[in-house]
């Protein structure tokens, strides 16, 4: 069982379990650009890689993504603000206060949340979907995301199939989703 977070009593809402950069063994970023919050957008992605259903396998996936982003793409850090595993945990990427590298021309005005796995033909499990919904509400309650935020899929802001057709169909029914700018 997950311990109740302090915001439960105050806001009647629990943030999902967030595995910190230290906990998953993140490399230090080469640089950081502060994100001016609250931002007006959440952009949903998928990593298009392997699924993970345990904390150990999700940590392995997140480390691999950070290595790819830093070593191959030469980015200063992992691109996403947070990553969501099918273990029901959220993994801190760049976090709440740092501009991401997840959606060209949208990074300075959004938080990028990426589901770990490929969701072109299958939907993430309930634990991952619930963690994502909770993360969005957590962002609002902590003041990092505007209460009047707009939710988008990566394909709504860039020519890509991300976050996969199956996941896109799900998020397009979530509150505050809007495909067009």
UniProtKB/TrEMBL annotation:
Cross-referenced InterPro entries: Amidase/PGRP_sf, Amidase_domain, Peptidoglycan_recognition, PGRP, PGRP_domain_met/bac
Domain Peptidoglycan recognition protein family: 16-158
Superkingdom, taxonomy of origin: Eukaryota
Single GO MF annotation: peptidoglycan binding
Gene Ontology biological process: innate immune response; peptidoglycan catabolic process
Disulfide bonding pattern of the chain: 15-138, 52-58
Swiss-Prot/TrEMBL keywords: Disulfide bond, Immunity, Innate immunity, Signal
Limits of the N-acetylmuramoyl-L-alanine amidase domain: 28-164
Pfam families listed in its UniProt record: Amidase_2 (PF01510)
Family the entry assigns: Belongs to the N-acetylmuramoyl-L-alanine amidase 2 family.
Matching PANTHER family: PEPTIDOGLYCAN RECOGNITION PROTEIN (PTHR11022), PEPTIDOGLYCAN RECOGNITION PROTEIN 3 (PTHR11022:SF12)
Name of the featured protein: Peptidoglycan-recognition protein SC2-like
Organism this protein belongs to: Terrapene triunguis
């Amino acid at each position: 069982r997950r311990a109740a977070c302090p915001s439960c009593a105050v806001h009647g809402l629990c943030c999902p379990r967030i595995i910190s950069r230290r906990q998953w063994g993140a490399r230090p970023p080469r640089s950081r650009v502060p994100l001016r919050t609250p931002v007006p957008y959440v952009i949903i992605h998928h990593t298009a890689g392997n699924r993970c259903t345990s904390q150990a396998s999700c940590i392995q996936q997140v480390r691999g993504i950070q290595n790819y982003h830093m070593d191959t793409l030469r980015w200063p850090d992992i691109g996403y603000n947070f990553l969501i595993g099918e273990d029901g945990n959220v993994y801190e990427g760049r976090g709440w206060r740092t501009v991401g590298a997840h959606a060209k021309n949208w990074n300075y005005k959004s938080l990028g949340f990426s589901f770990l796995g490929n969701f072109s033909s299958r939907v993430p499990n309930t634990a991952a979907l619930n963690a994502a919904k909770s993360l969005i509400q957590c962002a609002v309650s902590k003041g990092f995301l505007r209460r009047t935020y707009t939710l988008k899929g990566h394909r709504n802001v860039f020519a890509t199939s991300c976050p996969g057709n199956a996941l896109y169909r799900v998020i397009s029914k979530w509150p505050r989703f809007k495909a067009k700018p």
